[in-house]
């Protein structure tokens, strides 16, 4: 039976992740928009999409979703954060006091490639995937430090842009904005 996949649907590119999961062959009736702790209790895994981290952090704290996500992660639930989602998973955000879930032992730098006008697409090799993927970078973070338990999955110009520890995955870029579903399939198989 296909896992029940939740996509955090507070703000950001959640609809594009839903479309990518469907393109990857996942049944649409096994994909759920997550906005509350009750919604999260219905799913086996969670994608935290791109968006605005300050707003999403405040809304997650307001609903108690933050604590529920941390509890489920400690129980082994696979979680994938893309762009803002990776910032939310980080232990530390450079030069900024802001809420995070502290689920990945990484330090991130927000907007590491510049403002939105500096957005770009590129091909990236990713550990665990056969073919390079198309990656879209929009005001993307990078990983500047990571613990020894964190595996680096991909780099761009010597900057770390994808990491994993156990079943927690973080990517700086937006694979959901392309037609490539390799990373979505990888996440479904965690």
* Unreliable residue stretches: none
Radius of gyration: 15 Å
Portion in strands: 25-35%
Please work out how many helical segments DSSP would assign: 6
User: Can you tell me the CATH architecture?
Assistant: 3-Layer(aba) Sandwich
Major β-sheet annotation: 7 strands, mixed
Domain module tally: 1
In total, the number of strands is 12
- The dominant shape is globular
Q: Tell me roughly what share of residues is in helical segments.
A: 25-40%
Distance linking N and C termini: 15 Å
CATH homology group = Class I glutamine amidotransferase (GATase) domain
Query: What is the CATH C level class, in words?
Result: Alpha Beta
Strand order of the largest sheet: 2-1-3-4-12-11-10
The name CATH uses for the topology is Rossmann fold
- Report the order of strands and helices: EHEHEHHEHEEEEEEEEH
Characterise this structure.
The protein is of the alpha/beta class. It has a single domain (5-188), classed as 3-Layer(aba) Sandwich (Rossmann fold). The chain has helices at 14-23, 37-40, 53-63, 65-74, 84-89, 182-188; strands spanning 5-8, 31-34, 45-48, 79-82, 90-93, 104-109, 120-124, 133-137, 142-146, 151-156, 159-165, 168-171. It is globular, with a radius of gyration of 15 Å. A 7-stranded mixed beta sheet has the order 2-1-3-4-12-11-10. It has a 3-stranded mixed beta sheet with strand order 5-6-9.
């Amino acid at each position: 039976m296909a896992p029940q996949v939740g996509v955090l649907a507070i703000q950001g590119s959640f609809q594009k992740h839903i479309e990518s999961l469907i393109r990857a062959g996942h049944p649409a009736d096994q994909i759920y928009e997550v906005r509350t702790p009750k919604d999260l209790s219905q799913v086996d895994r969670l994608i935290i999409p791109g968006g605005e981290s300050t707003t999403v952090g405040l809304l997650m704290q307001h609903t108690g979703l933050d604590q529920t996500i941390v509890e489920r992660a400690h129980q082994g639930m696979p979680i994938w954060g893309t762009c803002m989602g990776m910032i939310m998973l980080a232990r530390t955000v450079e030069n900024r006091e802001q809420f995070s879930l502290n689920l990945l032992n990484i330090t991130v730098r927000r907007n590491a490639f510049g403002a939105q006008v500096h957005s770009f697409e590129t091909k990236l090799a990713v550990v665990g995937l056969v073919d390079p993927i198309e990656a879209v970078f929009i005001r993307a973070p990078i990983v500047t430090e990571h613990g020894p338990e964190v595996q680096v999955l991909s780099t761009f110009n010597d900057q770390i842009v994808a990491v994993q520890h156990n079943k927690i995955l973080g990517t700086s870029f937006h694979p959901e904005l392309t037609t490539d579903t390799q990373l979505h399939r990888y996440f479904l198989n965690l």
